[in-house]
Amino acid sequence: MKLYTKTGDKGLTRIIGGGKVRKNALRVAAYGDVDELTSYVGLIISEIADYPDLKTQLIEVQQILFDCGTDLATPDDSRGYRTKPEYTAWLEVQIDRYADVPPALTEFILPGGAPIAAKLHYGRTIARRVERQVVALQEVEAINQDVLIFLNRLSDYLYAIARYVNFKAGVTETNYRRNKRIFH
Q: Is 1 part of a structural domain of the chain?
C-alpha cells in the first residue's frame, strides 16, 4: 500500500466506510484534532521519564485517543464504536488519585511551572479545543457520546497531573491576581 493516494490533491479524504468528504468537513476536523492531541501526548511521553506511572497512563490515553479518532472517522456507527464508558471511569480514578496530592486551590492558577507540567497544561488546552470541535460535529451528525465525555474528562486529568508534577517537583504554582498588576 502506498503512503499517498492523491485523493487529498483535490481537497478530499476517505473516511471509514469508504465515503469521500472534504478535508475541511467537521468530521475530519474533529478526528484531525484528536490526532494532534494524540501526537502532543506523545511529545509529553517522550519527556516524562521521572514519572513512570504517568508515562504508562499517558500511553494508555494515546491508545484510547486512537479509539476516539476511529469513532469520529466512522459515520453512523458502521463498524461499532470503540470508545467505551469504562475509559472515562478509568480516567476518573486517576484524577482522584492525583488531584488530592497537591494542596487544595483557593484561587485560579496560571498554567506553567515545571517544563512537563507546563506541557501538560498546554495539552489540557488542546483537549478542550478538541472537545469544542467534537461538540460542533455532534450538532450536525450523530457521534459516539463516550468520545465527548472522555475528552472532557481528559482535560481534567491533564490538569490534575500537571498540578501533581509541579507539587512533586517542588514548584510553587502562580496564583492568578485578579485586577492586581505590578505595574502602574
A: no
